[in-house]
């Protein structure tokens, strides 16, 4: 036997050992669709698939980040154990009360009093409102966004941060490294933050020369702002012009359509707890809140609960939140998501609701800004339409980027989480659940605005789609499950 035969036999034995090992390990603690996608890649292309699986295949973080998140959840649960399931003055249904308990079990954060002050869709109005809140800061400002850019549209906000520092306010700022670095002016942006005296740090940094390495597929996608523990913003806006630094986007009118919420009350402390955890993970420093006492026993007119999620939460709180809400529905569900790639449980919840007579509406963009996710999303349209789901296509070239859901006239959630595999497992997200006030009504009014400019996709129209496009859709659907 010559050396070429030896190499061939070794290669074949190694390939079959890889496949044998993969079959018994890949499906562990993983949804079936993801397991199937990874196994197909490994079985057909083991030399590529197996190293890729070891690099990015796990949907969870391990080590220091996981330990800190678990400790934070325990501390939050312990310090809020004296609080009731929900504040007095609001009466959730039995199903909603169960959901509040579930969220608390998974994240350690209770349902507390919260007041929706304003809902913002226009980016300039959003940035102006944030700047105004910062202008009133006396003690500290905590800023955390996936994408940031100091451009003409965000200049007022960052200038307000600089002025706050100048008058003695401690401004802490977190931004995702990979999320922000690809936009124009990245180097000068960092220097401007430093020159302004802002205490800023990267989230999930990838700097191997500085021995700072994170899996490139795990990102922090949260978007939040807290001022003095009194007012907070959550939603889908990033701190960047709505054309995302692209002259081409600006020329063709391609703007991102977002939605953010300004709140006051005890819920602000919950938003602050999410920031404080991320701040400690990235810096090792404590971000002590100015106000720590929650108002117990004071009747509330509206209640809110913050639901963080991400790789540090193996129980997938955002996915369970969405599925539970849809199963609760008795009359109508309205979902707005830019990237809609549901897993089996979410797809079953949506179609089941439609089959039992609930009016289910899905608002998505006519064209997605990401090729793989856009086509993967399209692969679900036939199943949804056959179940009776109403799909509203927001007109291109705009990108519908808002992320919220309402159920009946009872409850709503809004925040940073998409309804896709990445948001369920690979990116840190934060959602706000609200009921008892007028948040649901405000979001339903926003639905009406989207509905008035969108067109409804019909099953008959969809069945006319060319075979070639459906083929691409299905391939991308498989690729989207590789996690």
Annotation field: number of helices = 19
Radius of gyration: 23 Å
CATH topology of the largest domain: Endonuclease, Chain A
Structural class: alpha/beta
CATH class of the largest domain: Alpha Beta
* Helical coverage, percent range: 40-55%
Parts with pLDDT < 50 across at least 5 consecutive residues: none
CATH superfamily of the largest domain: Endonuclease Chain A
* Measured distance between first and last alpha carbons: 42 Å
Second rung of CATH, namely the architecture of the largest domain:
2-Layer Sandwich
Strand fraction? 15-25%
Overall, the morphology is globular
What is the quaternary state of this protein? single chain
Please tell me the overall pLDDT.
89
Key terms:
483 residues, Endonuclease, Chain A, 3 domains, 19 strands
Structure commentary:
One of its GO terms (cellular component) is plasma membrane. It is a multi-pass membrane protein. Its EC number is 2.7.8.-. Residues 216-243, 396-423 form the PLD phosphodiesterase domain. With 483 residues, this protein is an alpha/beta fold. The protein folds into three domains: 3-56, no CATH class; 64-92 and 110-304, Endonuclease Chain A (Endonuclease, Chain A); 308-480, Endonuclease Chain A (Endonuclease, Chain A, 2-Layer Sandwich). The chain is built from 19 helices and 19 strands. It has helices at 3-25, 32-44, 46-56, 64-79, 94-107, 123-135, 155-166, 177-181, 186-195, 247-252, 267-283, 317-328, 344-355, 371-378, 381-387, 421-426, 439-453, 459-462, 467-480; strands at residues 112-113, 115-120, 140-145, 170-176, 199-203, 219-220, 223-227, 231-235, 256-257, 260-264, 303-309, 332-336, 359-365, 390-394, 399-400, 404-407, 411-415, 427-435, 455-457. Strands 1, 6, 11, 12, 13, 14, 16, 17, 18 and 19 form a ten-stranded mixed β-sheet that branches. Helix 5 packs antiparallel against helix 12 and helix 12 (317-328) packs parallel to helix 13. The protein is globular and about 75 Å long. The model has no long low-confidence stretch (mean pLDDT 89).
């Amino acid at each position: 036997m010559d050396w070429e035969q030896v190499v061939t036999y070794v290669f074949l034995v190694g390939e079959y050992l890889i496949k044998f090992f993969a079959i018994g390990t890949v499906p562990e603690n993983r949804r079936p669709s993801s397991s199937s996608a990874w196994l197909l890649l490994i079985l057909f292309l083991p030399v590529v698939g197996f190293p890729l699986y070891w690099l990015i295949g796990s949907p969870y973080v391990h080590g220091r980040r996981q330990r800190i998140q678990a400790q934070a959840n325990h501390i939050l649960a312990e310090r809020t154990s004296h609080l009731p399931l929900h504040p007095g003055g609001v009466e959730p249904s039995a199903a909603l009360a169960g959901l509040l308990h579930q969220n608390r079990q998974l994240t350690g954060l209770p349902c507390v009093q919260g007041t929706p002050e304003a809902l913002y869709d226009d980016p300039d109005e959003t940035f102006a409102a944030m700047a105004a809140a910062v202008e009133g800061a006396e003690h500290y400002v905590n800023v955390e966004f996936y994408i940031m850019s100091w451009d003409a549209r965000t200049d007022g906000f960052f200038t307000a941060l600089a002025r706050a520092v100048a008058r003695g306010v401690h401004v802490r700022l977190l931004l995702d490294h990979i999320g922000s670095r690809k936009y124009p002016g990245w180097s000068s942006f960092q220097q401007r933050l430093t020159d302004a005296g802002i205490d800023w740090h990267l989230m999930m940094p990838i700097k191997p020369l500085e021995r700072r390495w994170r899996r490139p597929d795990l990102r922090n996608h949260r978007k939040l702002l807290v001022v003095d523990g009194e007012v907070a913003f959550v939603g889908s806006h990033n701190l960047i012009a709505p054309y995302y630094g692209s002259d081409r986007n600006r020329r063709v009118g391609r703007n991102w359509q977002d939605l953010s919420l300004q709140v006051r009350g005890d819920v602000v402390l919950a938003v602050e707890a999410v920031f404080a955890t991320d701040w400690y993970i990235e810096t090792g420093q404590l971000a002590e809140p100015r106000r720590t006492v929650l108002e117990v026993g004071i009747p509330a007119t509206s209640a809110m609960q913050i639901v963080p999620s991400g790789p540090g939460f193996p129980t997938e709180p955002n996915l369970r939140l969405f599925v539970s809400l849809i199963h609760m529905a008795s009359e109508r569900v309205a979902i707005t998501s830019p990237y809609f790639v549901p897993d089996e449980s979410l797809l079953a919840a949506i179609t089941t609701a439609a089959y039992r007579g609930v009016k289910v509406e899905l608002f998505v963009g006519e064209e997605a800004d990401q090729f793989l996710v856009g086509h993967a999303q399209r692969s679900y349209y036939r199943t949804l339409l056959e179940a009776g789901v109403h799909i509203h296509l927001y007109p291109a070239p705009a990108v519908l980027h808002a992320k919220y859901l309402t159920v009946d006239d009872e409850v709503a959630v809004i925040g940073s989480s998409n309804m896709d595999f990445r948001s369920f497992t690979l990116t840190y997200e934060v959602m706000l659940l609200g009921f008892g006030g007028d948040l649901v009504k405000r979001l339903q009014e926003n639905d009406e605005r989207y509905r008035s400019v969108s067109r409804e996709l019909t099953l008959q129209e969809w069945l006319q789609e060319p075979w070639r496009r459906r083929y691409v859709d299905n391939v991308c659907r498989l690729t989207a499950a590789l996690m």
